[in-house]
Amino acid sequence: MQFSSSLLENAVNEFAKLPGIGKKTALRLVLHLLKQDPGDVHHFSEVMSRMRSEIKFCQRCFNVADGDICSICANSMRKSEMICIVENIRDVIAIESTQQFNGVYHVLGGVISPLDGIGPDQLTIEALIHRIEKEQTAELIFALNPTIQGDTTIYYIQKKLGTAPSANATPLRITTIARGIAFGGELEYADEMTLARSLQNRLPVDKYVSR
Amino acid sequence: MLRIESLALLQFKNYSDRVFKTPERVIGICGLNGIGKTNLLDAIHYLCFTKSYFSRQDATSVQQGKTGFRIEGQVVLQDKPEKAVCVLRENGKKEFSINGQAYDKFSQHIGRYPCVVIAPDDASLITGSSEERRKFLDSLLSQLDAGYLQQLIVYTKVLQQRNSLLKSFAETGQKDLSLLEVIDQQLIPAGEYVFNKRKEFLVSFLPAVKHAYLDIARQQEELHLFYESELLRAEFPELLRATRQKDLLSQRTATGPHRDDIEISMGKMLFRNIASQGQRKSLLFALKLAEMDVLQQEKHFPPLLLLDDVFEKLDEERIANLLEKVCIKNEGQVFITDTNKERLTLQLEKLGVAFGMIGL
């Protein structure tokens, strides 16, 4: 791509760094901004740069937040004794969209995968364990991807909790989200492992029927 | 019954755009060296296993100077026609579909079209390292049992994680042993599954190989085949505990089914050290023919058979003997390559089977 202005070229190159954006799309976006009122564009860039510099991570759950504590943790209507453990912020957004969960979260920031150079120290596992000791946590719900690394992470945290001295009077309940055939999916096309797992963990019909 | 009716190749190896009709049960593929006989067999291998028999990288199967390839097969499976398509896109992404329905995971396809290949390089199955024999065993068991392939994939992935962890211990000097234990807990069930399946299978398979060998060699030789695995002597968790210190030092996993082997001996010596070329070849055929029998029994229809240049170094009598086994006694579709069209035609005519001949 040939540009008559290096300013334009730099802007295009920056946009093209974003995921899912190629050079052509980047050019379209930049040319669009060029047509806008300079004030609007200034506002746009300010919003972006403020987002990056001022955003904070919740000190309790590591979700994104405007202050020290995110809006979910600060909400007194939510059950703080129920913690849902997720890999990243996107998973929080996904579970929030279901409007089915009224507890709080803990964002790990990834899953254990030595192959990718990610060990327990890179994640917020230590913080989670302190948190459980400090707060009166009654239930941990693991909502991690059903992969080998996800399983490793679950077993590791479970093991850590098993050895940590527990100050809790009530025993901690540890669960994972159900795995199996997708809603609206077809048995025929489910892979054997999923189907086998679904059979093993079958449900009584009265619990199955959605209410 | 499984039969490939036609094969359309686009930018695959030396074929820019060609269609081969293969409705007969026995197909001869003849032509000079380097003309693409084996490439045609490899295209069929792609349709059966979603990958090349010879190369790990799909890119090496693309015609020179091109990007991407397409293999389309008109297949008849249990009297029902279906279209199998394997496409390598320009971006290097591979897709595999049956009647337009793409697979999420290629492993789901393995076993749908059972297939046995006999190629000259296969001698390494006898003479090469234990990895070759595990590969043979894994390929066969995966076709028989989809659960085996799943567990093998899990085992391999967890093993990679474990080895990376051992390396990171050495690099950082910090040893999180509880993480190692967690990974071992994941490794153990998958490893035990793989081991038990191999053990169970080889109990009947190895005697069948021996029987087939004696049949081909037509002489009494003291041949022994046995499964060699550390898991035969101790439980997997125990083995892992015992080698832990060694693993931490060497930064890899010293025990487990990834070190299994099939030991072959003649008399008291290792077969690969003392066997003649003819004996090796006979044992190779014995392994493959036993594989064919097992697949037929389990699938209730015979597998495809791909014979690549197997007649080299065989005398007339042995060629006739082998052809009778694979074309008369076996009812599946057979593809045979040979450089000598007259020789192959003559042999097939002598057998009295209907056959098709592709001259390249």
Automatic annotation (TrEMBL), chain B:
One Pfam annotation reads SMC_N
Q: Which UniProt keywords apply?
A: ATP-binding, Cytoplasm, DNA damage, DNA repair, DNA replication, DNA-binding, Nucleotide-binding, SOS response
Per the record, the domain of life is Bacteria
Q: RecF/RecN/SMC N-terminal domain location, by residue? A: 4-349
Question: Which spans are transmembrane here?
Answer: none
Amino acids binding ATP:
31-38
- Indicate where this protein resides in the cell: Cytoplasm
- Signal peptide positions (record): none
Which coarse location class describes where this protein primarily resides? cytoplasm
Q: What does this protein do?
A: The RecF protein is involved in DNA metabolism; it is required for DNA replication and normal SOS inducibility. RecF binds preferentially to single-stranded, linear DNA. It also seems to bind ATP.
Regarding protein family, the annotation reads: Belongs to the RecF family.
User: Know the name of this protein?
Assistant: DNA replication and repair protein RecF
| Gene responsible for this protein | recF
